Structures are given as structure tokens and as C-alpha cells.
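Section 3.1: Structural characterization of target chains.
Under the original work plan, the team committed to producing a structural model for every single-chain target entering the pipeline before any wet-lab resources were allocated. The record below documents one such target. The sequence was received from the expression subgroup and is listed exactly as submitted; it comprises 294 residues.
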Amino acid sequence: MTTTFETALVTGASSGIGRALAVRLAKEGVHVAISARRAEALQTLADEIERAGGKRPVVLVSDLSKRGEAAALGAAAEAAFGGRGVDLLVSNAGVGIGGAQLVVADDDIARALFETNYWSPLALARALAPGMRARGRGHIVNVTSIASVAPMPLMGHYASSKAALSMATDTLRLELRDDPIHVFEVVPGPVDTPMLAETSLIPGGEQVFKRMPRGTTDVLADKIVRGLRRRRATLVYPGSLAVVRHLPTVVKAVSRSATRSVDVKDTRALMGGSTGNAEIAAVRAQAEARTARA
């Protein structure tokens, strides 16, 4: 089995982890297809990568909250690279919801979240794995979250979707054990991204996250590339949180105490992401402005 990847599709590339990873892969000489909902942000990223000497990325605007978009995106990426196809799939796109279980329940925003966070990675893998298998090489990276084993009030839908994706990733690895396809789960904890900034709108949530280690997107991007080279199965970052995945019962007990500052009586339903509620959009814009100045 080879660790070569000359082409890559990175979803959720307009900001945060996806953006940093696209830049990092381009520095490695990888020709990257970048996808997100915001065309302007993707074009800005493509310009940045090209100015830095990398191959200009393929820009593929896609809204993965809509059923069928992921399959279409996979086909478009495969076609964009011609006979080379996609060697590396990074399913990083994700959205969050701030809202109690009995407030959000199975509303449309909950279904859109699961479409983005869970169903789209599976659809993309199905679209791209046959080409990887035929070419004798390939990597599938699913970005989950430490939240999948650490429940927090008002973040249940996000945690549930990431827990489902984590289990699906483990299962996919078992099912591809005889194929030349590397399956890699990336499990971020708190990382400085616009999505993390959204958690400031959860009343009392900031107190929880202040107690946790915090990472950066650039460091995580470096670690992902190293993990790909080494064909790792799982990467937890920051590394000090790795033990959390092995002690789920203890973590749940700790969460009950650590999250008492969260106001569980809050009745809002806040849709995260670049097209979320006005409150979310304002917080994300501030976070992206800080990143641009850094």
C-alpha cells in the first residue's frame, strides 16, 4: 500500500481546519480541490495558495446540508482531476447547533446538521472509493470531534452526529481492510476556529471551554499530514485529550459536574456555520477577522 497523494478534496475549506489543511497540502505539492458554501472565501483561498507557489486549487462550491450535494461534489472532484482522480478525501465540513434536545428535536436545522456532519462524508466516500480502489491507492479522512464522547448541554445534536461519524469511520476501516484505502479519523478537541467561537453564545459554555487545552489549525494541519504519511488510524488533538476516548464513563461523570455553568433553560435554537443565525454569523465574522490579522 502506498501513502502517495497527489490530489485531494477538502470540504469545509473556507475557514478553520479545512482552510489550514488545504494550505498545508498545497505546500506539499498536492493539487487540492476545495469546497464550501462561500464562493468568495474559496476564491480568496485559491488566490493565496497560488501566490505562495502552489497549484491553483479547483474551486467547487457546494452546500452539503442538502441531500444529493455530496454525491455530486464527489463526481465533480473526480472529473476535475481527470484520469488521476482523487487520492485523498478529507470530509471536514461540519456545522453545530446551540439548542436543547427538546427545543431542536428533529426540526429542519437538526436534519440539515446530520446531512452535513454524517450523511455527506458517507456519500463522498461512496463516490470516491471505487476510483481509489481501481487506482490502488487512496486515503479517506473523517473529521469527528472529542464531543462525540464528552456530552455537553445544548450541544447534543453536534455531539451525536460526530459520534455517529466516528462509529461509521471505524466500521469503514474494517470493511476496507483488504483494500488499498487508508481510513483516518481526526478527533479535534477545542481548536481556534470560527466554529469554536460560536460556543461563546452558549450561556455558561465559555466557562467549560476555558478549562480545556486549546490547539491551533496550523499545528493540527501539520499533524494530519504526518498522520497520513504514517497511515495512522486515529489522531486526537490536542494530544492531552487522547485519554478521553478511552474513559467514556469517567468523562460522562466529569461532564455532569463541569457543565453545571451552562444554562439549560435557554430556549434558543442557534444554527451554526457560515449561513447560520445572525448571532452566529456575527461571532464567526469576528473570529475570521482575528485570524486574518494574525
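The beta strands are 7-11, 31-36, 58-61, 88-91, 97-98, 139-143, 182-188, 234-237, 270-271.
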